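From the methods appendix. Each design record in this collection lists the tokenized structure first, followed by the designed amino acid sequence. Records were kept in a plain field format so they could be parsed without special tools. The example shown here is representative of the layout used throughout.

RECORD:
FOLD TOKENS (492 positions):
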């Protein structure tokens, strides 16, 4: 592509994107397409034999995406913990792709490598974690948690697990976490050779926080029966309800038993930057490792996760090899960082740039304000749900609300009514999600199917929060009127 063509196609694209961003709140959240609708849209043509001019191609493709996507940047997208993307992040990805450094090794990406290292230190600083830590950027929360899991395995197994494998230890290793933990943990236990039977699920209290009394008991029991505890996972902002485990107490248990203490802060860790943060959230600073997701509350476009480990060499201990085909020597006094030795990837993109630019564009103050605003909106949402007769509030933690629609004549709480309410709320959610008016997700607490709103969105305003209860009630009434007699012919 000649420079002139690049310039004109690029300018037009930027204009097109600016129009899109400016108009996002006037669009539906989603077109609500089925897989068949989307396949039809793309057609079934085989691989193009011949190319097309870039200008028309870019114009058509942008239009296709703007018309038929789900917009997590929409002010009424309050679904999963998938945030609005900061526009500077889009520009950052554009710039990163143009320079295209391979951030696997210092020599291939001198500036980008050090910008990533600086980004990692700034993220640590923001959440109150020691800035002497090791760390790197990865694709998201799952990968960040995996990296920390592998570092824990290497650090805590008493034999050379990297050479001999997990089975060579002839032990039954044990990992402790509450049932509220995200499913990355099952994947990690499976992928890294322990098997999901190594996971010991700790009870939670009424607020869905890990019971440290149960944690202590299960560790003692396991030690008695010859099993080998090595890792405890606490969550700072759980995926369902935003709950934070009692991290201070868990840290003390880990110290006493010499266990690795990992905190999954994919969602909640940045909230530790707020003044007046509860001590339990602040206590993520005591962890041996922390996972943070810049593509959540730091508003980086997908994908950006960050793994932090307290011991600066914990990652190279777990991941480094020195193959003969790399000649990447550095000065002895000032050794370069070669990120391929710090994690799972070899060639790596410059995902740090969008995070680095975001942190510089708004600074600590900007993030504190945006995160505080989200939490304040969620608290306001809770008040409005409480004040709406047909809505039953459940939890409000960080920026997540759970609640459900309960028609006023159905308050009895019998099994039959509960079963119906679960169906009703699930159907309501499906319809609401497809409608494009607003987007919620769900949680299941004590077998109740709940609606869940999660505000990780700098575009969401008080107006959106005010509108939501009425929208939910309207969908609830219509759904109830349609399905109640169908499915439950007799009076409930
Ligand atoms: C989002 C989330 C994850 C998974 O992160 P991805 O970025 O989706 O891989 C893990 N744990 C928690 C607590 C999360 O909120």
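DESIGN:
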């Amino acid at each position: 592509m000649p420079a002139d063509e690049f310039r004109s196609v690029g300018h037009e694209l930027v204009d097109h994107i600016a129009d899109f961003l400016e108009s996002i709140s006037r669009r539906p959240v989603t077109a609500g397409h089925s897989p068949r609708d989307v396949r039809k849209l793309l057609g079934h043509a085989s691989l193009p034999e011949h190319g097309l001019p870039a200008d028309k191609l870019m114009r058509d493709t942008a239009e296709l995406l703007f018309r038929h996507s789900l917009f997590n940047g929409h002010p009424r997208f309050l679904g999963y913990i998938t945030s609005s993307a900061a526009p500077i992040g889009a520009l950052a990805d554009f710039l990163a792709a143009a320079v295209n450094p391979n951030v696997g090794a210092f020599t291939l990406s001198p500036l980008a490598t050090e910008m990533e290292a600086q980004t990692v230190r700034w993220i640590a600083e923001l959440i109150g974690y020691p800035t002497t830590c090791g760390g790197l950027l990865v694709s998201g929360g799952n990968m960040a948690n995996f990296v920390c899991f592998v570092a824990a395995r290497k650090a805590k197994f008493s034999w050379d697990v990297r050479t001999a494998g997990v089975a060579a230890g002839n032990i039954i290793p044990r990992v402790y976490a509450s049932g509220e933990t995200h499913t990355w943990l099952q994947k990690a236990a499976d992928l890294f050779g322990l098997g999901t039977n190594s996971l010991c699920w700790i009870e939670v209290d009424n607020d869905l926080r890990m019971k440290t009394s149960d944690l202590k008991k299960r560790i003692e029991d396991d030690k008695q029966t010859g099993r080998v505890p090595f890792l405890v996972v606490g969550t700072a902002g759980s995926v369902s309800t935003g709950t934070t485990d009692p991290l201070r107490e868990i840290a003390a248990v880990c110290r006493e038993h010499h266990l690795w203490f990992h905190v999954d802060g994919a969602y909640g860790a940045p909230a530790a930057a707020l003044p007046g943060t509860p001590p339990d959230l602040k206590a993520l600073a005591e962890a041996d490792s922390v996972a943070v997701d810049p593509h959540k509350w730091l508003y980086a476009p997908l994908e950006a996760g960050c793994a932090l480990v307290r011991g600066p060499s914990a990652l190279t201990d777990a991941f480094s090899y020195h193959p003969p085909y790399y000649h990447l020597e550095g000065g002895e006094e000032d050794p370069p960082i070669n990120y391929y030795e710090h994690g799972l990837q070899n060639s790596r993109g410059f995902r740090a740039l969008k995070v680095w630019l975001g942190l510089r564009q708004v600074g600590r103050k900007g993030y504190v304000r945006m995160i505080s605003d989200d939490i304040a909106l969620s608290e306001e949402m809770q008040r409005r749900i409480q004040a709406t007769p047909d809505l039953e509030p459940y939890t409000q933690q960080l920026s997540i609300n759970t609640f459900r629609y309960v028609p006023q004549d159905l308050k009895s709480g019998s099994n039959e009514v509960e079963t119906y309410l679960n169906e009703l709320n699930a159907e309501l959610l499906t319809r609401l999600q497809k409608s494009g008016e607003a987007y919620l997700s769900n949680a299941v607490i004590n077998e109740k199917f709940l609606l869940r709103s999660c505000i990780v969105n700098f575009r969401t305003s008080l107006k959106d929060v005010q509108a939501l209860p009425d929208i939910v009630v309207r969908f609830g009434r219509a759904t109830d009127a349609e399905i109640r007699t169908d499915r439950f012919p007799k009076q409930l």
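APPENDIX NOTE: The mean pLDDT is 95.
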